[in-house]
Each structure stands twice: as structure tokens, then as C-alpha cells.
Amino acid sequence: MIHTITPTEFASLLRTEKRPVLAGCLQNDPLHAEQIETLQYVAEKFTNQFSVCLLDPEYFSEFSRTYAIAGTPSYLLFYLGEEKTRFIGFADELNLMNILLIDEYSDLDKLEPAFGQYCTPVHPVPGLSGLFRSWKRQ
């Protein structure tokens, strides 16, 4: 079961949790019901490696100000209180596994963008180096 948490609870979780935290920012409506099921699936699959939570939709405006969330659905990955990456839009299981397993593909995130600016690397999240060796970022 995914826990729905308030901004205060989320801030506390980020301060204390040693595992990476995947936070889903979703509205509580029929359009997002499938997204909640997807988040639940990932939470069950990686229950020992990650903490997965749902940001309480009642506090969307506070979450959006604090974490610069532009819309829903959004998924944010934190490690040791620091945001590592995010996914914006409707996600399936592979999309969420992609952000969870970013440490396997961190070299891809160091490539310079087409505009010629330096792209800061995504800081990898430890813990899943042996899983999904054959799975590749789409």
C-alpha cells in the first residue's frame, strides 16, 4: 500500500530515509487511477530498495511551490534528501523503473545537449546495480 503524505511528513521522510524515495504527485480522480496502480506496482516490486509515497493532492499548491512541480502526474526521485531526477507525464512501469535505475545509465545523462551548453550529470542512486542488466533505457 502506498502512503499518502502531507508536506510536513514528506519533509521528515526526506530527512530520515536512507533509501531512495520515489514520490508520485497525482490528482485523485479517475484519469489518474491507472497511474496510482502503476505506482503501487513499482512500490511492491521494489519495496526493500525504495521508499514510495504519494504526495497528498490536497496540498498540491504547497508541493508545487516547494518542489517546482508544474503539473500532474509527476514523479520525483530523491536520495538522502536531494532530488536526483523527475519524470513528468503519464508513466508506465518501464518509465518508473527507468528513473529508479538511473545509476545504470548515468553516463547518458552527461551528454551535452544539442544547444551546446554543458549538462550537469544526474547523481546516480546506489543500490540496484545488479538488476535489469538486459533492460535498456528506451
Short description:
This protein is an alpha/beta fold. Helix 2 (33-45) links the parallel strand 2 and strand 3 (51-55).
Q: Care to describe what's here?
A:
By secondary structure, the chain is of the alpha/beta class. The chain has a single domain (3-103), classed as 3-Layer(aba) Sandwich (Glutaredoxin), CATH 3.40.30. 28% of the residues lie in helices and 19% in strands. The protein is built from four helices and five strands. The chain has helices spanning 7-16, 33-45, 60-67, 93-100, and strands at residues 3-5, 21-25, 51-55, 74-79, 82-88. Strands 1-3-2-4-5 form a five-stranded mixed beta sheet. A hairpin with a 2-residue loop joins β4 (74-79) and β5. The two termini are 28 Å apart. The model is unreliable at 104-125 and 127-138 (pLDDT under 50).
